[in-house]
Write a structure and sequence with these properties.
The complex is a heterodimer of chains A (470) and B (246). Chain A is mainly alpha-helical. In chain A, 73% of the residues lie in helices and 3% in strands. The two termini of chain A are 23 Å apart. Chain B is of the alpha/beta class. Chain B folds into two domains: 1-87 and 164-246, Rossmann fold; 97-163. Chain B has helices at residues 52-60, 81-86, 103-113, 121-130, 147-161, 177-192, 204-210, 233-244, and strands at residues 14-23, 26-36, 41-45, 67-72, 75-76, 88-91, 165-169, 196-201, 213-218, 221-227. Classes of the chains: A mainly alpha (470), B alpha/beta (246).
Chain lengths: 470, 246
């Protein structure tokens, strides 16, 4: 019996001119956003790859010079765009895409697309994730607000229920009919997305297809939440207009109010320093240390080396004491950076937990977090790359200072290394996090979304069972 | 007044036993006893608020009785919702259909929900024509239909379902005399086929003409019951008005 309801609902919706226009509009936006995102991601990936190759070439062909000068010369590292970043660009426009790796400093990321965007561009950017997170739920609301309330108002609910159909069967049939109509719009978009992923993945990612499948599952769960919620409200509301007003209110809170509240509340609960404050703190601590972290004492370092090698003059040391001291300075700096950046990242993480927790009031917050995570564009994966880049920088500095210490003597400023040393430094090989790592970081969002899913389905079942005939 | 056996002597298809319904402090239906056999058309007359629609709603299981039982083919509606509805067809004052679907598609849908999904489109189209719809209207979208045409689709739904019981709630209200006559003729044909009909109406003329029995309700109570064979139109009007005075 339920298949008749599904078929009727599907036919009814598809014949409705309002649905046709809305779905054409949303479908077109989705396809354009996917296509535009893919092209942008591919171009960015190609530009980054070319820039990375140029940076490497510059490094290898920098000529003969002291290794510590080479450490100051430095090298750029470019954050790769992961395969699914064309679906959801997440925080990438705000976090930057490249970092200059040099001696003594853990630099901020550069090249933030949002910095270069004009005001019009900032307003006009529409990603596939935004279409899926905002417009598809709106379409679901418009298709289902009258599922019960509209039937009741028209008087068809009496006739339907008089025919022997149960309320739950009717609700299930309507939900599946609406799903079928939505599938007309979403399945082609999903196929285009999958094809873009398989045929021309714009960037690397661990298990991109698995991430894509989970991402599709997350959005399906999100749509089901809205479908169930709409059916519940429609079954409960006295009129279709009331149901529509309530559901639009939910949509506004979910899509506009909750994200704003989450940002403000998380910043209020876990404030972060401004960029200038942060830089000044590091500068101050680099000059005088912080807590139990003290700047290296050059005299003490020299004394230790003299004792270690059993000589009395630095000129008699078989190594360059300056190189050793520079490395000690690096390690001191590293501890200062770790202390400050860890605190900063941890604050971002706590802010993220606030967002995830507030998802109990707005499922969008859970979906957005999961979407960015699976697309590889969230703060955690930015941190993952930043950590990898910083580890690489430290290794690079260790190699340069080590070479200087081992191959020259204290006071010998003429020592110069050549391309052999530069080429011996392996390029940065970044391995993106696995799907398990991403999901492990997002347990809270998964739980909250799961609770929304089960909760709304149960509420819908209960409300539908008690739906008045009118 | 019989409760277990109707006046026609058959086991009743539709039966109310001490059926009552309260809405808060208001008693909408008070201990109704009623039995309608196959081939009977029972017309419930009464002013607004007399309990006619409440009675129909109780037989449809749309409201839960405060007391007594509503039975369809001997089955209690409260405990056998699906089974009893399979035997019922319901035509309200305004048969509301899906505007984006044709008359045929509407019939196809409701017939399928009523367990008659196996009927082919040609058969269903014939049923619509038998119900009085013109052949060229069968495939047109219902948004173009008049009220009379929609009522005919309602009858067609009942015919396709081959329901044993027909519940009619002011079915001719707002129809022009010609359409009302056509509707009454269709009900008469169903009656001849052994369908038990319960019709709530304000229309004394139609009740006398279409019904085999008439019950007059007031304040939720069945105050009198008459056989239409034994009275004329004027008698019915006089008796009705007598009962409407305090």
């Amino acid at each position: 019996m339920i298949r008749h309801i599904i078929r009727k609902e599907f036919t009814d919706i598809v014949r409705d001119g309002r649905f046709r226009w809305c779905s054409i509009l949303v479908g077109a936006l989705l396809l354009v956003a996917l296509g535009h995102g893919w092209v942008q991601a591919r171009n960015a990936q190609q530009e980054h790859a070319a820039a990375q190759a140029t940076a490497r070439d510059h490094w290898e062909t920098q000529g003969e010079k002291n290794p510590h000068s080479a450490a100051h010369y430095g090298i750029y590292a470019f954050k790769p765009r992961l395969a699914l970043s064309f679906v959801d660009e997440g925080v990438d426009p705000y976090t930057g895409t490249s970092v200059w790796l040099e001696a003594h400093r853990q630099n901020d990321f550069l090249l933030r697309p949002a910095q270069d965007a004009t005001a019009a561009q900032r307003i006009g950017v529409l990603t596939a994730a935004q279409v899926l997170q905002h417009l598809v739920p709106l379409l679901i609301i418009l298709l289902t607000f009258g599922a019960f309330a509209g039937e009741r108002e028209r008087g068809t609910l009496r006739q339907l229920l008089a025919s022997g159909i149960g309320r739950r069967e009717l609700a299930a049939g309507k939900a599946l009919g609406v799903s079928g109509a939505l599938a007309l719009m979403l399945v082609p978009a999903a196929l285009v997305g999958a094809a873009a992923l398989v045929v021309g993945s714009p960037g690397p990612a661990a298990s991109p297809l698995a991430r894509g499948v989970v991402l599709a599952g997350v959005y399906l769960a999100y749509f089901t939440v809205f479908l169930a919620l709409s059916l519940a409200v429609s079954a409960w509301a006295r009129s279709a207009r009331t149901a529509l007003v309530i559901l639009l209110g939910v949509w506004v809170v979910n899509g506009l109010v909750a994200p704003r509240v989450a940002v403000d509340l998380s910043k209020w609960l876990h404030p972060t320093p401004s960029a200038i404050e942060f830089a000044r703190t590091i500068e101050r601590e680099m000059a005088s240390g912080a807590g139990d972290i003290s700047p290296p004492d050059r005299d003490a370092s020299t004394e230790r080396l003299l004792a270690e090698y059993g000589v009395e003059q630095v000129e008699d040391l078989p190594i360059n004491a300056v190189g050793v001291y520079l490395q000690e300075s690096e390690e001191f700096g590293n501890r200062i950076f770790d202390r400050n950046y860890s605190a900063l990242w941890d604050t971002f993480e706590r802010q993220g937990v606030v967002h995830e927790t507030l998802a109990v009031a707005a499922p969008l917050l859970a979906v957005r977090t999961l979407s960015m995570g699976l697309a590889g564009t969230d703060v955690e994966q930015h941190r993952h790359f930043a950590t990898a880049a910083e580890t690489y920088r430290r290794d690079l500095m260790r190699r340069m200072n080590g070479d200087m210490a081992e191959n020259s003597r204290t006071g010998d400023f003429s020592y110069a290394a050549d391309a052999e040393l530069w080429e011996s430094v392996p390029p940065l090989q970044y391995a993106a996090p696995t799907l398990g790592w991403v999901l492990g970081n997002r347990i809270l969002s998964l739980l909250v979304l799961g609770t929304w899913l089960v909760g709304t389905v149960l509420v819908a079942a209960a409300r539908v069972r008690r739906a008045e005939v009118g | 007044m019989q409760t277990t056996e109707s006046r026609a002597g058959h086991t009743p298809l539709l039966e109310a036993r001490g059926l009552s319904k309260d809405y808060g402090d208001t008693r909408a239906l008070d201990s109704l006893d009623l039995a309608i056999a196959p081939g009977e058309v029972y017309c419930l007359l009464g002013p607004n608020g007399a309990g006619k629609t409440t009675t129909i709603n109780l037989f449809l299981g749309f409201v839960v009785p405060s007391g007594g039982q509503a039975l369809v083919s001997g089955l209690d509606v409260s405990t056998h919702d699906r089974e009893t509805k399979q035997q019922l067809a319901y035509i309200p004052e305004q048969v509301m259909l899906y505007r984006n679907l044709s008359g045929l598609e509407n019939l196809e849908y409701f017939a399928a929900l009523g367990g008659r999904g196996s009927l082919g489109r040609e058969r269903l189209a014939d049923i619509l024509v038998k119900a009085g719809l013109e052949r060229d209207a069968v495939g047109r979208r219902v948004s173009d239909y008049s009220k009379g045409m929609r009522q005919k689709v309602g009858i067609a739904i009942a015919m396709a379902k081959e329901a044993a019981v027909l519940l009619l709630d002011e079915p001719t209200s707002g129809l022009d005399p010609k359409a009302s006559n056509e509707f009454s003729a269709l009900v008469e044909r169903l009656r001849e086929r052994g369908v038990a009909v319960l019709m709530a109406t304000h229309d004394l003329f139609r009740a006398k003409d279409t019904g085999t029995r008439v019950g007059i309700m007031r304040y939720g109570r069945l105050v009198t019951e008459l056989s239409t064979d034994e009275i004329g139109h004027a008698d019915l009007e006089r008796i009705y008005l007598e009962h409407m005075h305090d």
